[in-house]
DNA sequence: GTCCTTAAGTTGACTCACTCAAGACAACAC
DNA sequence: GTGTTGTCTTGAGTGAGTCAACTTAAGGAC
């Protein structure tokens, strides 16, 4: 399937291999997944793929500009195929789920620091931290259940 | 010295111990350092402090809101004492050095995503990536030295 | 000042994400 | 079909950080 990947890989100067096609397929279906999840999902297509092969494929894809690596604080590296549009991310403090946000400004670096301190800035990475809709509901229910019983409440 | 730390620790409900005072002293002198560097520097004051104690102290300080943990992608966790003013960071792609940038807007979250996708956003973390002044000079010199010989040049 | 409770530190083993190296295999130019 | 070489597999290793059990010492009660 997905012969588009073939072309993209070849254009990037990379050989077309089953592990690479599997990983690309997984990333297309599940954006913002970590290497381990990619390896597990890719094994559904290509059972013999090794974890190290996944790391190698991801490194190659990122190096070729076909994928982007994101590393929210406190979590493992995630990968996505959406590159080149300088978008940002919403990260849930509760469950760690990540959502894309289009950049309001446009091209990178979309923001300029007030004082660049001699730095040549080429990218402004923006991560919005908060609670996703599901976790807000869960937090409210938990808070209702415990606040009446114990008075326990806020958790940073 | 630094009896201010005593008060701050007690106010935060934490006991005043030598490892904690050592770590606070190191953080005050060297902002944006990693746990290992803190442990090494703290040993100058309190030679018997264990690496695990440093992790414990840092966790306690972050939990009490006296320190902030920052994790630039591709690096280890760094810690700083500057909390509560919602400032941001400049990170050098070359040497990894980190500099503070005052937030132009003020209180957190200083930015609002264009589409919050149901998230309750409480913080916008902005990291400016680029090259510090030193690395710009080094990169230029290296580029001059090699471009004439090999034509090598750009590196994302 | 002394005693006691318990938070905090020490020690040592462990987990997890990720990297490195060597040999086997397979994509693709010819 | 053949040869080259980039890629994958296998296995060992690294480093940041965590966990658990025991020991130590901070600080309140007396």
UniProtKB/TrEMBL annotation, chains A, B:
UniProt entry keywords in alphabetical sequence: Cytoplasm, DNA-binding, Iron, Metal-binding, Repressor, Transcription, Transcription regulation, Zinc
Comment on bound cofactor: Binds 1 zinc ion per subunit.
Single GO cellular component term: cytoplasm
Species the sequence originates in: Modestobacter muralis
GO BP, one annotated term: negative regulation of DNA-templated transcription
Residues where Zn(2+) binds: 92, 95, 132, 135
Gene Ontology molecular functions: DNA-binding transcription factor activity; transcription cis-regulatory region binding; zinc ion binding
Principal subcellular localization: cytoplasm
Key word Magnesium present: no
Entry-linked InterPro entries: FUR (IPR002481), Fur_C (IPR043135), WH-like_DNA-bd_sf (IPR036388), WH_DNA-bd_sf (IPR036390)
Pfam families in the cross-refs: FUR
Organism superkingdom: Bacteria
Known cofactor(s): Zn(2+)
UniProt record similarity statement: Belongs to the Fur family.
Protein name, as recorded: Transcriptional repressor
Record has Nucleus as a keyword: no
Location in the cell: Cytoplasm
